[in-house]
Every structure is written in structure tokens, then in C-alpha cells.
Design goal:
Elements lengths: L15 E11 L5 E10 L2 E10 L22 E7 L10 E9 L5 E7 L10 E7 L7
Antiparallel strand pairs: 1-2, 2-3, 3-4, 5-6, 6-7
């Protein structure tokens, strides 16, 4: 059952060839999510994690065509992490899920890449600790 649809503004990193939204993870029932955007281009593979919020965004489910329309409020996004800042090799990150609660009580977040059965790529698991996130991206 469709509840609502929202416009998601995709960030476009410089020198990219391909980019897109690969994963959404629900944070709460109040319309807060984490999104994973990945890119690949001249600079290599990249990925960014955003906190997004649907509150205040225009429900576009009843609009048959968005091209040329004004007055549509997209979801709000706040960059949490640009994985390029970690200075580690990145590959085709395409999965993200909330992991178990860590011993200190914080929430874990797990990202995964796929080697696509390609010897030039690699499978990668990245584990993060979520903490100090403000609501209202």
C-alpha cells in the first residue's frame, strides 16, 4: 500500500561517471532514514551517508509528471559521512543495514560492497558506530 512518495535530490560528486541512491535504512517511524549514495568516475569509487527526513516534503504520489513543476519541496538531507574522508580503498558499496547494539549501548551500522565476480574488484564490509545524530536533517 502506497503511503507517500517524495522527491529525493541526488548529490552529484565532481568528476563522476555514474552515481545513485543504493540503499535506505529506516531510523524511526517519524520519517527519518539513512541513505547511501555511491558514485564511480575518474576519481574512483565513492560513497556518502546522509540522514534524511520526509517531514515538510511534498507528497508527489498524486503528481503524474514532475518535470517543469515548481513548488515541490524535496526531502531534507544532511551529510553524515563522505567515505572519501576515511582515506581507505572503496569499491561498489551497495548495501547498508543497522547492526547490533554495541557494548557501549550505541547503534552499529554495516556497509557492504560486492566484487561482482570481477577480479579487479573486492568484497568489503565496513562497520560504524552511530552516535550524536540530531533529528531533522
Amino acid at each position: 500500500m502506497l503511503i507517500a512518495e517524495y522527491l529525493y535530490p541526488n548529490d552529484v560528486p565532481p568528476l563522476l561517471t555514474v552515481n545513485g541512491l543504493t540503499e535506505l535504512v529506516v531510523l524511526d517511524q517519524g520519517g527519518h532514514f539513512l541513505s547511501l549514495e555511491r558514485s564511480f568516475g575518474i576519481a574512483g569509487a565513492g560513497a556518502r551517508i546522509f540522514e534524511i527526513a520526509t517531514g515538510g516534503a511534498t507528497d508527489t504520489s498524486g503528481i503524474p509528471k514532475l518535470n517543469g513543476l515548481g513548488g515541490i519541496e524535496p526531502i531534507r538531507k544532511r551529510l553524515l559521512l563522505d567515505l572519501a574522508d576515511l582515506n581507505i580503498p572503496l569499491d561498489n558499496l551497495e548495501g547498508m543495514t543497522l547492526g547490533p547494539q554495541l557494548p557501549d549501548g550505541t547503534q552499529s551500522l554495516l556497509l557492504v560492497s560486492d566484487d561482482n565476480f570481477n577480479p579487479d574488484q573486492f568484497t568489503q564490509f565496513l562497520l560504524f558506530r552511530l552516535g550524536g545524530m540530531r533529528r531533522g536533517a
